Amino acid sequence: MGSIITLSIVQSALELGCIYALVALALFVSFSLLNIADLSTDGCFTLGCAVCAAVTLAGHPILALFAAMAAGVCSGFVTSFLQTKLGIESILAGIIVNTGLYTINIAAMGFASNINLFASDTMFTWAKEHIGGTWYKLIVVILIVAAVGLLLSLFLNTRIGLSIRATGDNPDMVRASSINTGLMVTIGLCVANAMTALSGGILAQYQKSCDINLGTGMVTIALASLIIGESIIGRGSMLKRVAGVVLGSCLYRFIVAIALRLNVPAECLKLVSALIVAIAIALPYLKRQAVFVRQRKAARAQNQVYLSEMNTEQSTEDGGGRSC
Amino acid sequence: MLIMKNITKTFHPGTVNEKCALKGLNLELAAGDFATIVGSNGAGKSTLFNAITGAFYIDRGLIVLDGEDITYKKEYLRSKTIGHLFQDPLKGTAPHMTIEENMALAYLRAKTSSHAFFSRINAADKKKFRENLALLDMGLEDRMRQPVGLLSGGQRQALTLLMATMVTPKILLLDEHTAALDPATAEKVLKLTKDIVAERKITCLMVTHNMHQALELGNRTLMMDAGTIVFDVRGEQRADMTVDDLLEQFAKQAGKQLDNDRILFSKAQK
User: Fold this and answer.
1) Which of A31, A84, A173 to mutate to test the interface with B (most CBs of B within 10 A)?
2) Domain B2-93+171-269, CATH number (from 3.40.50.300, 3.90.1310.10, 3.30.70.920, 3.20.20.70)
3) Facing A166 at nearest CB: one of B94, B116, B117
4) Which secondary structure element, helix H or strand E, spans residue B225, and what is its range?
5) Which three-class secondary structure state does DSSP give residue B118?
6) Whole-prediction pTM value?
7) Pick from A251, A260, B15, B138: CA 20 to 30 A from residue A227's CA?
8) Domain locations in chain B?
């Protein structure tokens, strides 16, 4: 393994892990807490990427990140508006927005299918000057993820955060409490999509380019990260669970990095990703099944003893001349 | 405290399932009144509660709570001052959130202004939650960081009661809230209800199928049938009443025998 995992692989896996962790955190809010499968994630990720690239190109790399988040909020608002005000099923609302975003994303990039930022200043070029060394990118993304994660876990314990969680957890209770469920879904999706778009924005600056197909499959990857994280950490305080999601995202990147190191051809990467996702999602279930099978085996062994005891008792009774 | 005038509600109007659930119902509760409600199956007891909480808008009539016309006030806006407990103990709490988080939610929603979105609970609030939980005598004060889903039905219902009354509501609606619990737990939750309601002088409506409870608890007994209140008894007349008197009154007022099997069953039990 020593030869497979080099320092530079660890570094880039951590960097990408932290960047994509924001999408996983978005799904943590929409999927785990609000119980909504938000399929606009792919398009929203690209939206953040496109908006950030466009604004960065115009010479405002920091403003670009906030612009990406604002775009994400708008996207989340539209998705929730379709759900709460127009009565469209949440999955459909996500798909509709995702489709529409394709055009919006192309438009945000000035009707081109990609933008490159090789000549532009990004926050990473700023960090290179001020922090230096080889770890400056990692330091920047860790700082951002730590700040977002901390703010998110604080937010989820405020009145509105608790209300959002209750909305996903027990609709009956929420209906009997003074909680406006439509508003909670809206706020939750806005927060989630802001994080998704921020993630896309950071990625645009990180790889100094943006492509219209960048977000494809993002929802699956984020879901895998989320589930890996949740199965490692389990339940606990919000801070702990948020940290678990970030950890899950980094772990996912490590798995992908190892697959690449094992000379998996680049064309097969999507298939490998899909496999990892399937395994990650199936694993908690398989674990429970394994426990059950072990238990059943132990119980059966014990039951055999009981059954043979009963048989011997019965045969002695039968010997006593019982008719049935 | 609560005035309901000529309340009418028809479900599925114009279809074969048309059901007139409330038919010109009138009810007035003074502050501190604790009224029990009995009635046949489908008499409109739960519908009455849902009309008060705003689960639907009534077709006709007026609802005034504490001097405020709430007839067309949105459900989530009025429920801030209304406590509502259901028969199903799972309905009142969020299972994947901890006891502390559930209490924080109930506390913050009722206590803070509706614009204080980012308010949080502090150490003093937590201490208060702990003291409140200790009053339940169920050991919950040492399990505050556990998810509510791990609690038994009785524990969850007791917690729901605590949450509903954490900030004194203008009216507390109890919809057979002990009916799904085992006898010992039901007894405990009922005693808790009595204590809290008496101590804080909460105006309270309680649906019950137990005729003894209907006469023992509170200061008024209401009987419902076919969407109206057919009998309202209080004071000395109520104190002298027996369960048989009550059943007799029902037959007289409603023009038929009480057909709530659970009521009759509970009568047979005692």
Assistant:
1) A173
2) 3.40.50.300
3) B94
4) strand B220-225
5) coil
6) 0.83
7) A260
8) 2-93+171-269
